Amino acid sequence: MTTQSWPGTIGFIGLGTMGGAVVRRLVSGPWTILVHDIAQQAIDRLVERGAVAAPNSAGAVSGSKVVFTCLPTPELVEAFWTEHYGLLAEGAIAVDLSTIDPATSRRVSDLVEKNTRAAFVACTLGKTPAMAEKGEIPVFVGGSAAAVEKLQPLLRHMSNGIYDMGSVEGATMFKLISNLVGMTNLAVLAEGYLLAREAGIESKTFAAALRTTGGWSSQADIRLPWVMEEDFTPRFAVDLAAKDLRLSVNMAATWGVPTPVAAAGLSVFSLARAAGLGGKDAAAIVAALKPILKNK
Fold this sequence. Notes:
By secondary structure, the protein is an alpha/beta fold. The chain contains 14 helices and eight strands.
């Protein structure tokens, strides 16, 4: 099946940093993208890029062959679908891109599939909004095999790698695991950076030397330059990172899986939130651990 063989309207709810980036990618395909968000400015920006504004959230769901949600919390995802599941057309697919816990994803999936003739697929996203806009992200999917297969043209257009996690629980948990590993890695990277500065190691030398060792990572590749430049413009905010770590640690506790390192990482992000850095990029945890002195 090619993208050309998938005509029709796609609804999209939630036009934040990542949701907006995904829409900017999708509008380059042969579909009508009907968008809605509580922020009118977010809608307007995407209409300028080729999307169509829905009259309201119900209008984005009704009649769409696929309806994406990309919302910041599990509570918002569940509330949205509890209110709107009955509007899904027969044969439609509800696709949730949000980073939420497996239990919420299962409840929403059951709500949709037991009460409608529509399907539900969890589809979590990797990497950054900038990469999402170019279709250079991996996607981690879970749901019925038939629904996942039907989505392939869309998934191939919006990503460069599709990983079937076998269930909605698998898709949502994998994203939490990815963020658990990445954000705890960032926490120890911030500590290492501060130690290097205290030792009198120049920032660029630290970065160049660390790259030659086993201490290098994707977070170092992405965020160490921002740490060094004190650039905390939000790409993935402290608040969201703390939420994901909390969901991971809580789910692990429910399953009886010990996660002491992740719990320690969560405490660092909680410290940053308490310092008023919740809206800043996750790299800002370094400023909560110890204020950076320029030119030190």
